[in-house]
Design a protein that fits this description.
Blueprint: H1 2-28, H2 38-48, H3 51-69, H4 73-95, H5 101-129, H6 135-180, H7 182-188, H8 210-235
């Protein structure tokens, strides 16, 4: 019971920290139009953290944004877009693992481009409902007016994904081992077979895939070597 309470406390602390980093990252780049790290961070959270942590941190971030900027049509877009990014990345990480970085790059480009279409659609619907002009006319006008910002958004997120997603994912996985503890972290992992179902041994216990185990062992080995090096360096 004590261990479960400790894990729950760690979950809550990590969720709060993740949400705070989302808001801080958004505000840090607010002066540069349509350049943001929120997409990158939410993808990392969904890929590396427990789903409840990633989804809750995303929801808290949206709430904080509403508190800062007030309610408007963008809230609808945020609720749809950011939750979809978190959920879709969670599925990608469980199905494809991290074997192909281009899958995550392609997803980043597509979902970022879709954000421009989504916000334009919502604004066009609202504007058309208050005017004699049609939805199509408003959609074209709004999208063409903002196409430069949409291109900047796509290029910026693509660059962030190419340069930061893989190294930050490795760092976060290593930190999860240290934060929760090796036994707890590996125990909570539930690797699946090629058919998408979890492998079960004859004794009824989950069987970890070799490739997944090797990846976790590598992380733990790297951390141990780093700690040994830092300890010997301090002795000098």
């Amino acid at each position: 019971m004590g261990q479960k309470r400790q894990i729950l406390t760690k979950d809550l602390v990590l969720t709060a920290l993740a949400a705070a980093l989302l808001s801080a990252g958004k505000q840090a780049l607010a002066s540069i139009p349509n350049v943001e790290v929120v997409t990158l961070l939410i993808m990392l959270y969904a890929a590396c953290f427990k789903p409840q942590i990633a989804f809750t941190a995303t929801a808290v971030y949206i709430f904080i944004e509403c508190f800062i900027w007030g309610l408007n049509t963008w809230v609808i877009a945020y609720l749809i877009h950011w939750n979809f990014v978190a959920f879709a990345t969670f599925l990608l990480a469980r199905v494809f693992k991290f074997k192909n970085r281009f899958i995550y790059l392609a997803f980043t480009i597509l979902v970022t481009a879709a954000f421009g279409v989504l916000t334009t659609t919502i604004d066009a619907i609202v504007s058309a409902s208050k005017s004699r002009y049609t939805f199509g006319a408003f959609f074209v006008a709004i999208y063409v007016r903002g196409i430069y910002f949409y291109i900047v958004h796509v290029v910026g997120n693509a660059v962030f994904n190419i340069t930061l997603f893989a190294p930050l994912r490795d760092i976060l996985n290593g930190l999860m081992v240290k934060y929760y503890g090796k036994d707890v972290f590996l125990k909570e992992e539930k690797p699946a077979g090629k058919d998408g179902k979890q492998k079960i041994s004859k004794e009824g216990k989950p069987v970890t895939q070799l490739t997944e185990r090797e990846e976790r062992d590598k992380i733990i080995s790297d951390l141990s070597q780093r700690e040994s090096f830092e300890g010997s360096d301090k002795k000098k």
